[in-house]
Records
---
Amino acid sequence: MFFNSYQFLFIFLPIVFSIFWLLDRSYRVGFLIFSSIIFYAIWSWTHLLLLLSMIVINFLFAKKIENSFNKNWLIIAIVVNLLPLFYFKYSLSLLNNNSILPLAISFYTFQQIAFLVDLYRKKIILDGFIKYLFFVLFFPQLVAGPIVHYNQLVSQINNYSFSKLEIKFLQNGILIFSIGVFKKIALADSLFVISNSTFSHIDSIDMIDSWFGLIAYSLGIYFDFSAYSDMAIGLGLMFGITLPINFNSPYKASNIIDFWRKWHITLSDFLKNYIYIPLGGNRNGQYREVASLLLTMSIGGVWHGVGWNFLLWGFAHGVLLVITHIVFKYYNMKESRYISIFSTFITFLAVTLLWVLFRADSITSAWQYYNILFSFNFGSVDIKILIEISIGLFIIWFMPNSIEIISYSNLKSLKWYYGLLGGVLVFISLKIMAVVPAHSFVYFNF
């Protein structure tokens, strides 16, 4: 059941939303936990048992850590968390086993590891099993993030953020959710049609086809992940919960460092705070900093998927980060409007070129695709595809993002025309859904 499916939009969400706000506030957390379990169970009862088992195991480890603050318990807990991830995501794939990856296993594994580390560092206080269940299971963020910290959610429960339905939360939640639905259905999925065609027919495409396909994929994954992030925030607001921003116009970034501060923000924070800094970060000389950065980004690469192409994708981003850090350290770059525009374009181009490794089925396919990109074997230009790509580029570079539209950091009641905008976007999306089946989000695969 996708967020962009009829079952979710017209059955699950209306029922859960209505009952939630009709219940006394003392029952609302429990009801959201129950609803989240049903939401996950629709995907797979078997994988639900794994998820619930890991929640119980982690809570027991948390009690041990809280009572002793023994580092050995933390290490054992981290290893136990990583075992199912390695088994399902890596060992079965390496053995060419076609078993379905448990939904959200990468996300809830990292989220619970962060929780255990924060508990060991005495940044949080464990506050009962029910609240821990809610922290892990809350369905808007369960499947593909954001990777939420314990205090970010539990503090809102303790303060009864959802004690009453605030109109500004509901208005802004519906609007940003509607924008997300439109991005996914009208933009991302149509762009993926273009990119899927080129990447699945590498032997018969020319240079122009390859560039159109690659840019379409770059824009497609942008709108896909942006859509999910919008919908997660929107759903959270509908239930009186504010989730952290996870996506903030990364293609407007002027360098690769800025890109990773805007793309999958909560994953970047996890990699920085729980891998890069413990490895030494920038505290032990330049060589240690470089090694820590390359290793961290390589881990980030294999977190996304199995194969040398994912490892190389992460490593290449690490190399770009290293180069950028060195340039900033030794060269005083003067900012100007033209330099900013140029550096933004170069950053977009570099990130887009690396998406080949991410999208290709193998290193061999990626290398073949790179050869075609620079083959100078020109073909005809498909005007329809050119227009679609041009619209996408205009949106990412010249229009405000969803967070800016609703002023997420300072929510206010919306003017009537925002309701009209949301209604139009949903209407267009539903018209498309009537003839095109719902597609999964890219990050559901991780």
Note: Residues 167-199 form the longest helix (33 residues).
---
Amino acid sequence: MFFKQFTGFLPLLILLAAIVSIAVQDYPDFGIIMAMLVINACLGFHEEHKAKKSLDELSHQLESEVAVRRNGETLQLNVKELVPGDVVLLVGGTIVPADTQWIKGDKVSVDTAPLTGEPIPRKYPGEHGDVILSGTTVVAGECYGRVLRTGADTEIGNAQKDVMADKTVTVTSVFQKKIMLVVQVLVSACFALVIAVLLVEGLYYDGFSTDASQVILDAVSVFKYLLYHGIGMIYLLHHNSRYLHTHDIS
């Protein structure tokens, strides 16, 4: 996850600046630019790690043990070991470990807020059927239920899969596209100016014939100057656009 942060337009641009610094033997600037590259990677890694940690904590909340009736025996099993067909005992305070069909017992009150957002507990069996969904909490009553679906096949499991799928899709807002367009124009202008220096000094003033290495060094120096002065603004624009998009600020 950390090395993934070194891919993309901005990290490659910073790396290009570092290569230019090495080419002109400007070691202090090289150190500063590499520090910027590492800081950029650390910030991106921190954001992704925090999101992954929150998702892991949510998954961990569903991990517990439950009384199970299997093959004529009563067992105390981790919820990860449940399979469709197991009969589980649901009591007040139990987080329902799987999508479970009510079999017998009391009419239980179930807090379905994590899935439906409803503040008032639902009664099962009742107008909402007899299937108690995974991730909900039994508030009152005791009953036996048959496991129908577990893990990723449950309603909450499908929701988590959708969340993970959304995280793998990069959505670029109109604002971000405009910012990246400005950045690309600035970089293109830098390259155009460097090529102009090469052409004018190398061809018009015949620099390629007299001292080609000096012409190339001058062009690299111009590129280095433009890149150093533009990279700060580019870095600021890029991260501000990411911040506004992440916090949904328009």
Note: The helical segments are 9-23, 27-61, 113-116, 155-168, 174-204, 207-246.
